[in-house]
Amino acid sequence: MLDRIEEIRNEAETALGKVGASAELEELRIRYLGRKAELTTILRGIADLPPAERGAVGGAGNKARKELEALLEEAAARLDASELDAKLLADRVDVTLPGAPRPPVGHPHLIARTTRLIEDVMVGLGYTVAEGPEIEHDYYNFTALNHPEGHPARMLQDTFYVQSHPEVLLRTHTSPMQVRAMETQPPPIFVIVPGKVYRRDSDATHSPMFHQIEGLAIAEGITLADLQGTLLHLCRSVFGEEREVRLRPHFFPFTEPSVEVDVSCFQCGGSGTLAGGKRCNLCKGQGWIEILGAGMVDPNVLGFVEQHGYDPERVQGFAFGLGVERVAMLRHGVPDLRRFFDNDVRMVGQFS
Are 9 and 74 members of one domain? Predict the structure, then answer.
């Protein structure tokens, strides 16, 4: 019996020295120290041995069991370390790389995105994009646009003047670039002008600073029908292919005739009523939404640049101006223009 215990110990020691995986180690533990293992059976049967053999067999069996338990612990520690090293090698990560997913880096503001949308539509029609100064001369902002000194229309656009230079002001519209652009090239000219403008207004639909886009087209044979077709394409590109436009008579000093332009309501489809017969809250039941002002360029304006080839007897054209904030408010359901300038990430984050 003693010889067999020694053979079991030697056999287990050899096997444990060669073990290469945790699963294999568990099999060896069951084989040599499990409930049905031979060594365990020997230790349970000591009571059935002659009294003279019990002490020797019990001592040898317990010693062998403790030695095997120690060998198992050593093998387990060795395997854990080697398997961890292998896992770390396989899962190696370059900690200098950015995390996945990468953190958001922001996105264009809704006003910038709306401006780019309109620019893309007009560039597709052959227009070029121009920019002008926000600090402007009275001549370009008013006089050359048929707003002579003392004209009542100046009061509607009263703005911020430079105290030491009364002829210098913050522009009230992007229209000064009409004259500036025509001074740089002869007709034909097709240009749009995005930019900031300034007026002394502040409420839910007006801001002291806001954004406009001016459009100007001058060539031979241009008519009001060309203006209507251009604005119809613009409105359908911005508000949907089902839209229609309506021109209503109006007055602007630098256009004649002048029109207000409405687009058919995209919430009620131009009917003025919603499902269930309720009045459309967006168009106030009218079926139309005022969107911009436009008209044929007044010959008096062309007279200021006649020396650059803009003879009002030979060329004519149209101009229009729209507020970017108004377009963005209508497209995205923003109820208050001032929210665009609050820098509240809860608001701007909705349009990422």
Answer: yes
Separation of alpha carbons 214 and 191, rounded Å = 8
Q: Look at phi and psi of residue 135 and say left if phi exceeds 0, alpha if psi is from -120 to 50, else beta.
A: beta
Task: Give the model confidence (pLDDT) of 128-171 as tens digits.
Answer: 999 999 999 989 998 999 887 776 666 656 677 788 888 898 99
Residues 263-284, mean pLDDT to the nearest whole number: 88
Lowest-pLDDT range, 52-61, 69-78, 229-238? 52-61
How much is the pLDDT for 103?
A: 62
Q: Please report whether residue 285 resides in a domain.
A: yes
Domain encompassing residue 31:
2-90
Q: Kindly give the residue spans of alpha helices, DSSP state H, lying in the chain.
A: 2-18, 22-33, 38-44, 51-90, 110-124, 138-141, 152-156, 176-184, 224-239, 299-303, 324-332, 345-348
Token pair listed for 41: 């059976």
